[in-house]
Amino acid sequence: MWQAWGVQPDYLLGHSVGEVAAACVAGVFSLEDGLKLIAARGRLMQTSAQAGQMMAVLGNEQAIQQVLQPFAAQVSLAVINTSESMVISGQRDAVQAAAQALRAAGIKTKELKIFVASHSPLMEPILAEFAQVLRSVTFAPPTLQVVSNVTGQVIHDELTTVDYWLRHLRQ
Questions:
Q1: Gyration radius of the chain's alpha carbons
Q2: Nearest alpha carbon to residue 155 among 33, 38, 7, 14
Q3: Three-class SS state of 114
Q4: Is 58 exposed, middle or buried (0-12, 13-18, 19+ CB in 10 A)?
Q5: β-strands 154-155, 145-147: how paired?
Q6: Which in 56, 83, 132, 154 has the greatest CB count within 10 A?
Q7: Measured CA angle at 111 (ends 121, 41), to 5 deg
Q8: Residues 6+ away with beta carbon under 8 Å from 101
Q9: Per residue in 133-154, pLDDT tens?
């Protein structure tokens, strides 16, 4: 819509599935392929929905990462919204235990009503099947600058690889 109004972005950025939309706008793949990726991603992610949980955490990344170390096999720092607002994600019992440890360290937590543990170890079992879907997509170099949701940096050729989109789903 913005482009139809004559607004041309210098950079594109989207969070999680929003980066798929950004990649479509940048010409990395067609809208049809983008929709195919989002549909497959959602279907596959639902396979772990019963076991997962996400939790908002208010604290700095270093302190949060330190408390999360014992839970690393089951819980990930999934989202960094700001320097003091993050989200952890993973296996429900482990997220609950990690939240208890975070609160004991003076870090505030809030349970999110999201039952798919995005960007967590629970995504590992679906990566191979998602890779098959990614291999059916026709990739092209971006025509606009895209800021990676994974790295926070402008990326180019990496957007056209299966490996990038697998990292995107997991990290």
A1: 17
A2: 14
A3: coil
A4: middle
A5: antiparallel
A6: 56
A7: 40
A8: 67, 70, 71
A9: 999 999 999 999 999 989 999 9
